[in-house]
């Protein structure tokens, strides 16, 4: 599992402004194409509002960025023990625009927007576990579909796996 943590790069830029935020987004197209195409509408107003909040949240963002990789590794180990296999999926840690806190795309990749997370390690563990279960779900469902073990009737109200 590869953990991509872009938070320090973001925080190391002097003072966030529209130009530096746009450069940060362009420097990480995989993350922000996914984020802006399904989890946060990208507007100038949203970016300006985020800039105002970043300075207030600077130390919290820094703390979460340091805690989160360890929490992710711990939860990944528990997931391997529970499900019997580990997920070899990219995990992305980034600074967003105060929209979604975490999500999994349909390729099973996991994303965490630190500005919407709490720095309490127990609460981080809950959200990380939640997203890992989504990723396991997509992985298991995808494997079964690809191997022909499960035929999905998308119009069906319930789905038994």
Please explain how this structure is put together.
The chain has five helices and four strands. Helix content is 57%, strand content 9%. With 161 residues, it is of the alpha/beta class. The chain has a four-stranded mixed beta sheet with strand order 1-2-4-3.
Summarize the structure.
The protein has 161 residues and is α/β, with parallel strands linked by helices.
Write a concise keyword list for the protein shown above.
globular, 5 helices, 161 residues, alpha/beta
| Terminal residue distance | 26 Å
Bin the strand percentage.
Answer: 5-15%
Biggest β-sheet description? 4 strands, mixed
Total helices: the number is: 5
The number of distinct β-strands equals 4
Considering DSSP H and I runs of 4 or more, what fraction of the residues is helical? 55-70%
Listing every helix as H and every strand as E from the N terminus to the C terminus, the arrangement reads EHHHHEEEH
Oligomer designation: single chain
Q: Which regions have little confidence, pLDDT < 50, spanning 5+ residues?
A: 146-161
**What is the radius of gyration?**
17 Å
Average pLDDT over all residues: 87
Helix-and-strand structural type: alpha/beta
Give the CA-based shape: globular
- For the largest sheet, list the strands in their spatial order: 1-2-4-3
Chart the SSEs and their pairings.
Layout lengths: L2 E3 L1 H6 L5 H10 L1 H10 L5 H40 L7 E4 L7 E3 L5 E4 L7 H26 L15
Parallel strand pairs: 1-2, 2-4
Antiparallel strand pairs: 3-4
Helix pairs in contact: 4-5
């Amino acid at each position: 599992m590869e953990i991509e943590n872009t938070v320090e790069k973001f925080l190391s830029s002097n003072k966030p402004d529209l130009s530096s935020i746009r450069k940060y987004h362009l420097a990480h197209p995989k993350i922000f194409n996914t984020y802006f195409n399904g989890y946060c509408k990208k507007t100038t107003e949203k970016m300006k509002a985020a800039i105002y909040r970043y300075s207030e949240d600077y130390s919290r963002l820094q703390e979460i960025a340091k805690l989160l990789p360890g929490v992710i590794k711990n939860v990944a180990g528990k997931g391997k023990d529970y499900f019997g296999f580990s997920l070899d999926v990219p995990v992305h840690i980034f600074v967003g625009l105060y929209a979604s806190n975490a999500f999994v795309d349909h390729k099973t990749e996991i994303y965490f927007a630190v500005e919407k997370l709490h720095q309490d390690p127990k609460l981080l563990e809950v959200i990380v576990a939640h997203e890992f279960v989504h990723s396991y779900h997509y992985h298991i469902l995808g494997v079964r579909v690809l191997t022909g073990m499960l035929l999905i009737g998308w119009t069906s109200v319930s789905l038994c796996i």
